[in-house]
Structures are given as C-alpha cells and as structure tokens.
Amino acid sequence: MTDLADARAQVLEAVAEYRRGDTTDVRGWRLEVRQGPGSVAFTVALDGPLLGTGEAMRQSPRTAPAGLADMDAVARSLRILIAEDEALLAAHLEELVAELGHVCLGSVRSGPEAVQAALEHRPDLMLMGIRLADGTDGIEAASAIKDKLGTRSLFITGFGDPRIRARALALEPVAFLHKPVPSGQLRQTLRTVAAAA
Q: What are the tens digits of pLDDT across the range 43-93?
C-alpha cells in the first residue's frame, strides 16, 4: 500500500502539471484532467484498494481519505481580472494566475476600466491595485464592483498607510498582498478563495 501522504503529494503535483486533457499514471494512481471555460475537472483512479478489502472496505465511509479532500481547492479554477497600472507587475500577475491553474481574464490600468471590464467579464475575484493609472482609486473601483456584482477584491499595494488600509478593509477584501507579490503567498490565498467558492 502506498504511503497516503506521499500519494497525496504526487496527485496534487500531477493535478497542477496536467491541466488540459492529459492523462498520466502516478505510482498507482491514474489521473485524467479536463479543463473547460472557468473550471477544471479531474478523475483519480487507484490501481489497488486504498482503504482495504472486503468487510473493512464496506464499513469505511464513502468520503475522500484524510488529506485528499483539499484536492478540490487545487482543481477549482477562478476567473480573475487584474487591475494594476504597473505593466511589469500586471504581466507577472497574469503569468502567476495562469501557472496556478486559474483563468486570467486580462488586466486593466485604471479604476473605470476595471469596473467596465468586471461588468463585461464577471470575474470571481479581482486582483486590485490601490493606486491606479490616471490618478484613479482602486478602492473606489473595488467598491463599485462589489456593489454591482458582489465580487470581492484581493488588494495589491506598495503603501502601508493605515488610513488607506482602513478604507480598503471596509470592503471586506480577500487579502492584502504587498509588492512585490510573493508567488507562494498568492498561491495560498487563491487556493483558500477557490476552496471557499
């Protein structure tokens, strides 16, 4: 029997790597992943019994083994719109979102563009800069998007001003990330949001 923690890690890694119609075998696991617009579906099959056989198998609950239930968080794909006026950071965020298995709906530079794009694309989540192009305010844009669509924002900021933070906190954001955005922190935050979706 394969060590469950090791098998879980291999399956999660395979889910992250094999995204579009691929099939792979991972030490006793057969994994098939299908990606559609805004979602990822996967099937995991075992070559042998995981919980045991016979009577022990019939008495076992029909839920995922401990430690495997959070695979759904990896498989759920969020539709994300980015509002960031720094072109290099916006491009970096677009790459990170795609690498993490989510759908990047694009990036915009100003608050009014963010509201318009959100109304058009209806994202699950906004990655929102605080100060945007043309002197526009990401907090105001996030407020308008939340009022119109109910979409929450993950704020990205280079500012530590407590007054700005207090204004943003009134919108109940998903999180605050400070520039430069650490990919591990973004990965964990998006995983948490996807699991709650």
A: 555 544 443 333 333 333 323 333 434 444 444 789 999 999 999 999 989
Distance from C-alpha of 171 to C-alpha of 146, rounded to nearest angstrom: 8
Which structure tokens are listed for 107?
A: 């990036």
Q: Lowest-pLDDT range, 92-96, 121-125, 127-131?
A: 92-96
CATH number of the domain at 79-196, please? 3.40.50.2300
- Amino acid type, 135: G
Ordered by start, the domain boundaries in the chain are 4-75, 79-196
d(CA 184, CA 72): 19
Residues sharing a CB contact under 8 Å with residue 59, sequence separation 6 or more, in sequence order: none
d(CA 45, CA 147): 43
Do 95 and 52 contact (CB within 8 A), yes or no? no
Answer for the pair 126, 152: CB distance below 8 angstroms, yes or no.
Answer: yes
